[in-house]
Structures are given as structure tokens and as C-alpha cells.
Amino acid sequence: MIREREFKPAPGMFALLGFLAAEAGAIWLFVRGVRGENPTLLVSALVLFIVASLGLAGIFAVYPNESKVLTLFGRYVGTVKEPGLWWANPFNKKEKISVRVRNFETAKLKVNDNHGNPIEIGAVVVWQVIDTAEALFEVDDYQNFVKIQSEAALRGLATRYPYDSHGESISLSGNTTEVSNELMSHVQERLAKAGVRAIEARISHLAYAPEIAQAMLQRQQASAIIAARQKIVEGAVGMVEMALTMLAEKSVVALDDERRAAMVSNLLVVLCGDRATQPVVNTGTLYT
């Protein structure tokens, strides 16, 4: 595996001035050779001009948040990351790689969740190249590699969790933080071999597939109603128990088993009903 190593080029400004001066000197020699009909000066001028022109080809600029990867006849020489004007061997091939923070949004993938329900899911991935040598030499196209591997990690994540579990377990819709952290971990694991660091990965789109969206919405509503009813019944039973206990402790009224059962029934109807109850006032005795 090829690792990034820093390359220290020569200052470009001095090289630029030097080679420009050499070309000017070559022109001056050429003029003198033509005037004096001196073949030696003409040859010297030609050689000097060619050398200066080749030297100028070795000058390159590096901009902020950019790097140049240098190779010489297929051999990795090093990477220049410091911004400025530099000079290196003109035969070095210089590949530009951006080290800026970049992001992209995956396509809306259609996959089956942990319960086999077809869903649509998409994610936003923020990434940055941290090893230019690995990005250039270890994979064919690092930008396409980031895209494909991120989508593969998202597909794998979607199959491990259900769309919704109503709090019973981790779900894609109910535990966004945990799911995003796991997605981030899987994306980073896949991108590390390309010299890329994943900065952030989070789900940007999540929905049931159109063909089952209406049915799953009804299912969600039914499940939510059942869950709410369970909570209501649990609370109502606790309140009835508390009421009976307080009545007995404070000796407010003595109830036999039949009247106690009637009171429990009435309280449960009041507490568990989904509509307002209509009270009935008993104007007789307690037992009429």
C-alpha cells in the first residue's frame, strides 16, 4: 500500500526568474551569432533556450486546500500540499487532488428493511481526502469509490433495522442519532482504504415505498392507537387502585364487593373512554 509522503520542491519564483533570464540570454546569443555568423553561438543559444523552456515546464502552483501528487515515469515521488509557486523536475507528472471538505447526497435507494418492508432511503455524506497517495493509487476513481461505497453502507444499514418499532427496539425513524452514528462508522470503514475520511453521514430521506405507503400508514396508525390505549389502561388501573386505597384509608365510604366492582367499572369507563362521559346523579340512597 502506497502511503503519502511530503515532497519539498524548490521555490518557484526564483526558478521562474532564472529560467526567464536564461531564455533572454539565449535570445541575445542567437542575435550575436546571426550578426557575427558564428555557428557556435547559435548552437549555444539553441541549447540554452531548450534547457530554459524545459525548466519553465517544471514550475507549478499549489492553491489553498489543494495538493499536487508528483510521479516520475510511474514512480511515486511525493505530494506537495503547501500553497505557493514551486519548481520540480519538469519530467514529473503532477496530478491535482483537492483536499477540501466535500459532500454529496446519495440517490434515493429502494431497499427492504429488517421486517421486509420496501422503503426509500437516502443519506448525505461529508468527506475529505486525507491521504492523496492512497486516493490516487489504491482505487481507480476515488470520487466514484466514495459514492458507491457510501450507498453500499446505507443499503446494509437499512436491512439491519426496521422502519419503525414504536420504541421496542432501535428503528430507522425513531433512533436517528444512533442510526447515523452507525452509518458514519460503516462509511468510514469502507472509505479508509481510499485515503478518505468521513466527517459526517446522516439520513436525509426516509419513507415507505409508494406501493405500500398507504397501507403502512394505516398500520402505523393502528399500532400507535394500540400503544396509546395500553398506556391509558395502565394509567387508569393505577388511578382506580389509588382512589380505592385512599377511600379505605380515610374511611370516606365503606363499599362492599359489588359496589366496589361498580365503582371500578365506572372509573375505567371515564378514564379509558375516547369521548366525554355524561354523569348520572343518584338522588336516592347509595344502594338505589
Secondary-structure blueprint:
Blueprint: E1 10-11, H1 12-36, H2 39-57, E2 59-62, E3 66-72, E4 75-80, E5 84-87, E6 93-98, E7 102-105, E8 109-112, E9 118-129, H3 132-137, H4 142-160, H5 176-191, E10 196-208, H6 210-249, H7 257-272
Antiparallel strand pairs: 1-5, 2-5, 3-4, 3-6, 7-9, 8-9, 9-10
Helix pairs in contact: 1-2, 4-5, 6-7
Explain what the structure shows.
The protein is α+β, with helices and mostly antiparallel strands and 288 residues long. It has 3 domains: 10-97, no CATH class; 102-208, 2-Layer Sandwich (Tetrahydropterin Synthase, Chain A), CATH 3.30.479; 213-272. The chain is 49% helix and 22% strand. The protein has helices at residues 12-36, 39-57, 132-137, 142-160, 176-191, 210-249, 257-272; strands at 10-11, 59-62, 66-72, 75-80, 84-87, 93-98, 102-105, 109-112, 118-129, 196-208. Strands 7, 8, 9 and 10 form a 4-stranded antiparallel sheet that branches. Helix 1 (12-36) packs antiparallel against helix 2 and helix 4 (142-160) packs antiparallel against helix 5. The chain is rod-shaped and about 135 Å long. 20% of the residues are buried.
Mean pLDDT: 84
Total helix count? 7
What CATH architecture of the largest domain would you give? 2-Layer Sandwich
Please state the CA-atom Rg, rounded to the nearest Å. Answer: 39 Å
Structural class: alpha+beta
Taken together, the total number of domains comes to 3
Measured distance between first and last alpha carbons? 92 Å
Strand fraction: 15-25%
Instruction: Spell out the helices and strands N to C.
Output: EHHEEEEEEEEHHHEHH
Return the CATH topology of the largest domain. Tetrahydropterin Synthase, Chain A
The CATH homologous superfamily of the largest domain is named Band 7 domain
In the CATH scheme, the class of the largest domain would be Alpha Beta
The low-confidence runs, each spanning 5 or more residues with pLDDT under 50, are none
Largest sheet: 4 strands, antiparallel
The total count of strands amounts to 10
Shape: rod-shaped
In which range does the helix fraction lie? 40-55%
